[in-house]
């Protein structure tokens, strides 16, 4: 079993009561704040801090009979998960449970919003649970509007939540996925879920497969020179034939201010999105900065 799932089950074990979906996200978030290496990452979502990975793990754990999950999370096993955790993670859980087990619902939401206002910026209920002054603090936690910019970002080495936070903190309005096939073995980065996640944090998602590279062409890459040959071919074929798509990106930046191109590789110079960015920089009608996240 993945260690992070043991942390989740250990938290349920320590709470010893049925937990609502929203409360569980909040308790798990508070545990993550106490951990040196968080088991889960969170984004500012519709009801505050939210982990897509934790929700996916909940479904998996329910499937295999460790929990019962409908409107409430209920531990459905007698195994002792707390004992299986690293001492520091067990201590983090016990601290959160000791301090917050009697705080639930609206009061728990208020605590998290007041102490971690960034995670409330996209909340649909903040007006109902916060005072006007507290709402202002939340708004001040939102990244200020900045000058137009084209970003590139790879999801290699990032969780879905870490990836989304990088975009949110830079006020990115549109994510352009330039993979030929928007599928991934890595959780959260296949088209359907990535689009859903982006929507939840206020980012529009556009898939531009015409700007991708056929996976067959990547199969035999062994060296930097192989990559350079591939990119040279890409620039002189795909990109040279993609004026309409490049026009679309120019228009997106002009109309939305901040746009990001995404693919897998962490380093932009090892990814064809870097070629797309360079082609846009070379255009006389572009005139914006490019930054690699």
Task: Explain the overall architecture.
The protein is of the alpha/beta class and 293 residues long. The protein has 2 domains: 3-140, no CATH class; 149-292, Cobalt-precorrin-4 Transmethylase, domain 1 (3-Layer(aba) Sandwich). It has 12 helices and 10 strands. The strands form 3 sheets. The protein has a 5-stranded parallel sheet, sandwiched between helices. A 3-stranded antiparallel sheet has the order 1-5-4. α1 packs parallel to α4 and α2 packs across α4. The chain is globular. The two termini are 32 Å apart. The model has no long low-confidence stretch (mean pLDDT 93).
Our estimate of the beta-strand percent is 5-15%
Query: What would you call the shape?
Result: globular
Computed Rg: 22 Å
Q: How far is it from the N-terminal to the C-terminal residue, by CA? A: 32 Å
Strand and helix order: HEHEEHEEHHHHEHEHEHHEHE
**Low-pLDDT sequence parts:** none
Number of helices: 12
Main pleated sheet: 5 strands, parallel
Summarize model confidence as the mean pLDDT: 93
CATH architecture of the largest domain: 3-Layer(aba) Sandwich
Total beta strands: 10
Structural class label: alpha/beta
Q: Topology, pairings included?
A:
Blueprint: H1 3-15, E1 19-20, H2 21-34, E2 43-45, E3 48-50, H3 52-63, E4 67-69, E5 72-75, H4 87-100, H5 105-115, H6 126-129, H7 132-141, E6 149-154, H8 160-169, E7 174-177, H9 191-200, E8 204-207, H10 224-236, H11 243-256, E9 258-263, H12 272-281, E10 289-292
Parallel strand pairs: 6-9, 6-10, 7-8, 7-9
Antiparallel strand pairs: 1-5, 2-3, 4-5
Helix pairs in contact: 1-4, 2-4, 2-5
